[in-house]
Amino acid sequence: MAENTSQKRPYSGVIAFLKQAGLRPTRQRIALAKLLFEGENRHVTAEDLHIEAQKAGVSVSLATVYNSLHQFTGVGIMREVGVEAGRSYFDTNTGDHHHFFHEDTGSLEDIPSDQINVSELPAAPEGKSVKRVDVIVRVSGQE
Fold this sequence. Notes:
Distance between the termini: 40 Å
Shape: globular
Strand order of the largest sheet: 1-3-2
Largest sheet: 3 strands, antiparallel
Structural class: alpha+beta
Number of helices: 4
Helix content: 25-40%
Order of helices and strands: HHEHHEEEEE
């Protein structure tokens, strides 16, 4: 969401972004998209985004945050990164890249795709094709 149209209306850029993605710009989606997409790329959990929204004065339930994140992922403006069972992050960077998962802090850090070389992949099941390869490198401060 590169263009800044805040001189006209503070939410016009976010509204246009959501419409372009094929989503109806509801009040909750607009507020969450403004938090997520105005600024640098980031990794968030639904719980963290819910807390951030509450602090920003956005009245939204955790269920609505989850639904919105899954809708954003479904239309391709975010991607979900599962780090373990029941724990997912949502990434605003949808470009080709991988992640470090910092086990001691629970945070994700991008790894450019050219820093990882996957030399061979198994053949995809019949009737399927490989969409993307996600590599998560787990790191900790412990040796």
